[in-house]
Specification:
Layout (H helix, E strand, L loop, with lengths): L12 H14 L5 H13 L3 H6 L7 H15 L4 H5 L1 E4 L2 E4 L12 H13 L8 E5 L5 H9 L4 E6 L2 H13 L6 E5 L12 E4 L14 H4 L4 H4 L7 H13 L3 E6 L5 H11 L3 E9 L5 E8 L2
Parallel strand pairs: 3-4, 3-6, 4-5, 6-7
Antiparallel strand pairs: 1-2, 7-9, 8-9
Bound molecules: glutamine.
The site of glutamine has 13 residues, from helix 7.
């Protein structure tokens, strides 16, 4: 990893773009043309269209400094969302920090499943209450509250720093009045009732963390990844209490690759008031990503 990024001051955008691609390519970062464009967007604040239109424009001093810094971080495999401090999720932009999991596109599968269930069971006008366990950036619950304008929610997280980011995201998306936060491990201390429980819990088996992609291992917080010895600890914690918290409604959780059958089994065995068997939904990559189950009084 080169620690002195090249000096871009006074070079035309087109030449800078070519240099970026060469360096990104040498660092084996996927899709250098796209990454080079995104780094230039971060450094200059220009859109993709303006970057093309103004390709002959020379990079200013401050832009070159920002670019060198962003490039240095990207070449160390820091995800671009972390360098920018924000990430798109379900059509909205969320602030991220080192204290939260970077929202992932596959988690949008969980949103789709919940919205479909709401649409099929009485519609979006109902005053639904939703609990999100391990809210992180808040992307799941805040998205649901933004889509379900009559719903209210409770978000839990063990990390006060994560809760601070989620609060800021709730304000940014206009749902701060409909969301409450509790600093807690899984459902500990939660005694209210909800219609829906959602969670994308930490689910990586502890021993697998060292072998994760460096962009995940070195930048997503360990607390957001580590699911205990077999990766299923938080699912068990949730399953032990969810029947009481959601007496009649929907449970929908994200699972890691290959975990769906185990998680379905945990829910089936632990939730006494379950209504029927769990079902699953695949993400756009074809992996089973969400497990859902109904409860009934
Ligand atoms: N709920 C957040 C997300 O899905 C955080 C999840 C986590 O930290 N494991 O992005």
């Amino acid at each position: 990893m080169p620690d002195a990024a090249p000096d871009f001051i006074g070079h035309p955008l087109s030449a800078v773009r070519r240099t970026l691609q060469t360096l990104l390519n040498a660092a084996r970062i996927d899709d250098p043309p796209r990454e080079a464009r995104l780094l230039l967007e971060v450094a200059t604040g220009l859109t993709a269209e303006l970057l093309l239109r103004d390709a002959a424009r020379l990079l200013r001093d401050d832009e070159a400094k920002r670019l060198s810094e962003a490039l240095r971080r990207r070449l160390a495999h820091e995800p671009l969302s972390r360098i920018k401090g924000e990430r798109g999720f379900y059509g909205r932009t969320f602030a991220v920090s080192p204290a939260v999991l970077d929202p992932r596109p596959e988690t949008e599968t969980l949103i789709d499943l919940v919205l479909q269930w709401v649409d099929e069971t009485g519609g979006r006008q109902r005053p639904l209450s939703i609990i999100d366990v391990g809210t992180g950036s808040g992307c799941i619950l805040i998205t649901l509250l933004a889509e379900l304008t009559h719903a209210t929610g409770l978000a839990t997280d063990l990390s006060p720093d994560a809760i601070a980011i989620a609060r800021a995201n709730a304000a940014r998306h206009g749902v701060a009045e409909r969301i409450a936060f509790t600093q807690a491990r899984s459902l500990e201390g939660v005694d209210g009732l909800a219609d829906i429980l959602v969670s994308n819990p930490p689910y990586i088996p502890s021993a697998d963390i060292a072998a994760l992609d460096p962009g995940v291992r070195d930048y997503d917080p360990l607390l957001a990844l580590d699911g205990g010895p077999d990766g299923l600890t938080v699912y068990r914690d949730i399953a032990a209490r969810v029947g009481a918290v959601v007496p009649s409604g929907l449970i929908a959780v994200e699972v890691g690759t290959g975990q769906a059958a185990d998680v379905a089994q945990i829910l089936t065995n632990s939730v006494e008031n379950r209504a029927g068997l769990p079902w699953t939904r695949k993400d756009l990559g074809g992996h089973v990503r969400t497990v859902a189950m109904l409860t009934q009084r």
